[in-house]
# Entry
Amino acid sequence: MSRPVIFRQIPFLHLFRRITVLFTALCVLSACAAPVTKTAINDPYEKSSRKVHAFNKGLDRALIGPTAKGYGFITPPVLIHMVSNFSGYLGLPGQAVNNILQADAKGFGQTLLTFTVNSLTFGLGDLASEAGITDNNADFGQTLHVWGVGQGIYHEMPVLGPSTTRDTIGFVVDTAINPVNLLESSDARWAGFGFSVLDRLGDRNQYSEVIEDTLYNSDDSYIAARSLYLQNRDFKLNKGTIDEDSLEDPFADF
# Structure
């Protein structure tokens, strides 16, 4: 009896070519991104980004926000945590790849240990955090930062929200190396996508106060969202420390 095929058979040469294409695109896009100082914000397409922001804001008000609150209301908290844990568990192999690309031996050890410990619960529990194991949450945008690639142009993407050139490229690469996307079964890939969506809804519900205060109670929600995103991202890129030179008063011009 033949063994079931779980992962696609991707030749090494084909995978290498895909990585080469992605890296070439990265070089081209990063070369086109104008360098900026720490205190400056590179947002040359603010007019078009504001239109996307208005769309995202309307989508959140009409669909995402109410759906997230409904999900939080009808779903037991323990189940929400299990969904969040499993979604994070599925991303650990890709996180390990980024640890390697960053030459972060400590981070790789943390990720490997987290994956091993949480495998005892099939990813549904977070025994690693309970044991005090730190999750470094490495992503490819962070990897590019370590490689010296600048953040590029700030922009807002439909549905996905605020981003930069570097982080958008990082999102594409992280999606490409996610092991769930290498599964042969389309049902399994859709299940992985479903867990990711539910995890996002859980986050939207958990941080609803901050999100709604930013979107609906700010003098200018676009500037407030941009400031919040860039400062939070800077915090992560600097391993949990704040670079005071990068802090922005979002309403300094008012």
About this structure: The chain has a mean pLDDT of 83. The chain is about 65% helix and 5% strand.
